[in-house]
Amino acid sequence: MSRVLLKGVRKSFGDFVALHQLDLEIQEGEFLTLLGPSGCGKTTTLRLIAGFIEPMEGKILLGDEDVTQVAPQHREIGMVFQDYALFPHMTIAENIGFGLKERRYPKQDINDRVEELLDLIRLPEVHDRYPAEVSGGQQQRIAVARAVAYPPKVLLMDEPLGALDLKLRETMQIELRRIQQELAITTVYVTHDQTEAMNMSDRIVVMNSGRIEQMGGAEDIYNEPRTRFVADFVGQINLFDANSYEPETGMIKLDGLDQTVHVPVNLAGGGESLSLGVRPEDIGLANSVESSSGMNHLAGVVSGRTFAGNLTRLFVDVGLQKPVILEAKSQSVKSNVGDKVTLTWPVELSKLLSD
Amino acid sequence: MKTRWEYVLLPSFLIVGLLIVASQYVFLKGSFFKDLGLGRISDTASMVNYLRFFTDSFYLHTLWVTVKTSGLAALFTLTLGFPVAYLIARMQSKWSMILLAGIVVATFVTIVIKVFGLIIIFSADGLVNQALMGLGIVDTPYTIIGNQTGVVVGLMHFTLGFGVLLLYSVIQTIPRSLEDAAQIHGASRWRMHLRVLFPLSLPGVTVGVLMIFNMCMGAFTSAALLGGGRVFTLPVLIQRTVMMEIKYSMAGTLAAVLLVTVLLINLLSIYLIRRLRSARLVIA
Question: Hey, which end of chain A has fewer CB within 10 Å, N or C?
Fold first, then answer.
């Protein structure tokens, strides 16, 4: 259990730059998720911490120790792999005890610890079975037990739930979080699934093309995205190209529409290419076109409607290429395709995004 | 009614079956009749050829030399081929395909050309001897023509490419993440090989080594050319018995002994691996 520090870490593979100058600190006991699309550098970061690859520049510290040049087997790290990577020729007890045996623990200690871990993952009856003889979810938990057997300084997880079906994935998210909190183990988790990231993490690091786009708690990331990429990647959002933000009034002009809307005043953002982002659940339908203060309005025609159980989505054509999507409780949505509507949303929920 | 397309396969099945079974039948049957000289064969069946084989030290020695050179060649091919196969299997660039293609091409170049290459390299003023003498390791040129070392080298040259391809396909089936998992959980590279790679590749490697051994046991060209008429293996001896002594029945006997020996060694190896596996030392 200790913190992890990456200082100015750079890595490229041939011409492809996987990581540009990455600085990242993971606090002791923290559950940190690296979130991003494939190729964003999240797995590279994880493999650098593990020691499977070496950075071209920069340092990696575990606790206070510089481990940049230390081989993986001496870093005292536990790792859960995407395909679990359980040893097919060893029993489940042998798999879990692997790291302890490699570190020459006495046999009795290994057995006791394996028992303890099988209890922790709630699979006490499977010792002598082989990985192929248990289900995918069970293999997953066994892989976690193996990774934490020799109490590692850090636990790394590389998309560990990717191979499971949706229901099981949700159960496992809770399960993994429980185990992590019970052991209070510093954890770095890699995923491209934003729901997974938000469900489990203390802190999320959104990555894009080898750079950190934004980091923070799930709510910060979702409610206050700073860039168009983050807003779009985490959750659903309607994006409008915009120009000319006036910090004093909060007024912006939308590209392709002869209309201005407001965002909160005196935002730090600015720069050349700006966009406005509004979450589908923040948009409502106005009864009248008359403007009320603190609200934005946009007129359009309903072009589509989908039903998703508790929620219904309306697609509203406002004269831009992409329709604006709004999402509301099913029983409150009365409009149908072809209806003229006025969209409205609060100014303070309008997000000003840079590129 | 559903058309039974399987029947279309029947003729080719019969032809292949006939070719394999009939040829074996002819020499197996022939091996039980005495040669009368000049290619004539007696009408009455007897064990005389087999008796001769197992009482004549020359024949027994030939069998021993065949098994020994083949066994050594198979083991050396494994030792040389495994690291190469491992490297190519774990390479993450386009070079792996290029290297693999190179090995395939080299493997299927006729062994005659490859053996002449070997002979040139190992000749008295060839590359190897110049180096050895230049470094002062030997005083007189070292030759591999006409001795067993040469035959082993020739057999290895014949099988190394196949060996690398076979081992490559075995290693490919073992996910790389298993190696990573072993390492991150505290195993050194050596311990990883011992506890993960070796047991997981053993069944495939055994089959590969057996195939290479079988190829060596039946190899004629490299053994004949490098043996230089002084080292006899069974295939070389069979050729001489047919072409120079014109004793078809004795040749049949030699072929039968070769066939049975290969069969026995293969069955024994598979049996041993099974035992190991059920004893939980190895698992496929």
Answer: C
